[in-house]
Design a protein that fits this description.
The protein is 5% helix and 52% strand. By secondary structure, the chain is mainly beta. The chain has a single domain, classed as monomeric porin ompg (Porin), CATH 2.40.160. The strands form five sheets. It has a 16-stranded antiparallel beta barrel with strand order 1-2-3-8-9-10-11-14-15-18-19-20-21-23-24-25. A three-stranded mixed sheet has the order 17-16-22, with no helix packed on it. Residues 1-52 have low confidence and may be disordered.
Length: 457
């Protein structure tokens, strides 16, 4: 759960599927080249490739480093993607990724001007948080193994289909899924309409069990408010249209629907119970001779269903050797989170074999309707509540550049370096007393570095 809900939510939106191998062929026109480039970003809308005279393999290896400041989350990821190109435009794709995560992550508790003692998620020990610092769990350590496979082929003259599977494993989280898509060409293959769906089932297996929503954090060894393992199911649907506007311009519009149900809480996140006047976390009467939390904390609780709607638009424009790539995404859900993403890249050729691609991305979202920085003592407990900063109101900016070149032997190499900045705020109506003088939202800065090497056999 730590990987899936802490880092992947951040890294997945930053890592724009770069490093995927490019199928080597000679497009018949610039618009066809742009269409191919766009489809490389969107697996469910891929167009058929040119028929190969002989079967061939395409490989891409990638190394990703993501590091947050203040000794927070550090992620080192190694990925291998292999594509087997068959005659008649059939493609087998295999992917393997290994993520190693370390560091510290915010637990949701509010900062305080005295030392706070918090029971670890496993319930086996405690740790101390220094005064006036953000409460972080410094035992954030996990390794994720992920595998995916897909098969794509033409279905007649105008149709193209694909099916796939995915699987990933962490020490406390298991994901398995299937997906399929179909596309049809119209208008002399200048228009492509696509449909896709994906089904996934996740098993959440935290050490010590999943805590009951909005129940108190207890002493070390007391797991009386813990439940067994939980599950989550996700259904995703996609409808897309890709249109060649002119020789130099290609546009795409996608609508996606996502329905998640089951255990959607984070078993590692908590909320502070505070004095309704001072805003300070209330102390807890310790059990004599037993380690436990020094203050009153409750485990978070989220709804057991979430429905999301997304609209994505993208345009690619060819300008005398340069390619401008701009996209916009709007997402809304029944948790009242609205998000907006603008992404822009401009690829400049340098000579005949290299290029540089500056990149900027802006993201903003509103808070969930059950987001609470703290809970006031004496007030009735809400049905749902979470202090997870990822559900709050925040803005994020990513800026950087990618440099790539093709070697004399035809291999593709690229480096990408970017800087990520995230900052948010707590609604003023939620801040109480001394909280007005404290930094209640854990913003972050991070460095992202990616190295990719692609070759064919």
């Amino acid at each position: 759960m730590a990987v899936a809900d802490s880092v992947v939510a951040v890294v997945a939106v930053i890592n724009q599927k770069e490093g995927n191998p490019v199928i080597k062929k000679k497009p018949k026109s610039v618009s066809k080249a742009l269409a191919t480039a766009t489809c490389a970003l969107l697996g469910t809308t891929a167009m058929p490739v040119q028929a190969q005279e002989e079967p061939a393999w395409e490989f891409n290896t990638a190394l990703l480093y993501y590091g947050e400041d203040d000794d927070r989350v550090q992620d080192v990821s190694i990925a291998l993607l292999a594509r087997r190109l068959f005659a008649d435009d059939k493609i087998l794709t295999l992917g393997l990724t290994v993520d190693s995560l370390t560091g510290a992550t915010p637990v949701g508790a509010a900062p305080l001007d005295v030392v706070q003692t918090i029971t670890r998620p496993s319930g086996n020990s405690t740790y101390d948080v220094a005064p006036d610092t953000l409460p972080l769990d410094d035992t954030f350590l996990d390794t994720r193994y992920a595998f995916n496979a897909s098969w794509q082929q033409p279905l007649g003259r105008l149709y193209n289909g694909n099916v796939g599977i995915s699987f990933s494993k962490e020490y406390d989280y298991v994901h398995s899924g299937v997906n399929a898509g179909i596309s049809r060409d119209f208008n002399k293959k200048n228009t492509t309409v696509s449909l896709g769906f994906a089904l996934s089932k996740d098993d959440i297996e935290p050490i010590g069990g999943t805590p009951m929503a909005l129940t108190p954090m207890l002493d070390v060894g007391d797991l009386s408010n813990r439940l067994g393992n939980e599950t989550k199911d996700v259904v995703d649907l996609l409808f897309g249209v890709t249109q060649v506007i002119s020789r130099n311009l290609l546009v795409q519009v996608n609508y996606s629907y996502s329905d998640s149900s089951g255990y959607l809480s984070d078993p590692f996140k908590i909320l502070s119970v505070v004095d309704p006047i001072t805003g300070d976390t209330l102390p807890r009467v310790p059990t004599p001779g037993v380690d436990g939390p020094s203050h009153q904390f409750l485990f978070e609780g989220r709804p057991d269903e979430r429905v999301k709607h997304s609209l994505y638009t993208q345009a690619k424009y060819y300008m005398s050797g340069k390619v401008l790539d701009i996209s916009y995404r709007y997402m809304t859900d029944d948790w009242d989170i609205d998000s907006y993403t603008v992404d822009a890249r401009l690829k400049f050729p340098i000579g005949n074999s290299s290029y540089i691609e500056p990149h900027v991305r802006f993201y903003t979202q509103t808070e969930a309707n059950f987001y609470r920085a703290t809970l006031s003592a004496g007030e009735p407990l809400p049905m749902f509540a979470s202090a997870d900063y990822r559900l709050g109101n925040f803005d994020a900016l990513t800026a950087g550049a990618k440099y790539g070149w093709k070697t004399g032997s035809g291999h593709d190499i690229s480096f990408r370096l970017e800087y990520y900045m995230q900052d948010g705020d707590v609604p003023s109506g939620q801040l109480i007393g001394n909280q007005l003088q404290r930094d209640m939202y854990p913003g972050l800065n991070a460095i992202i570095f990616n190295f990719s090497y692609g070759f064919g056999l």
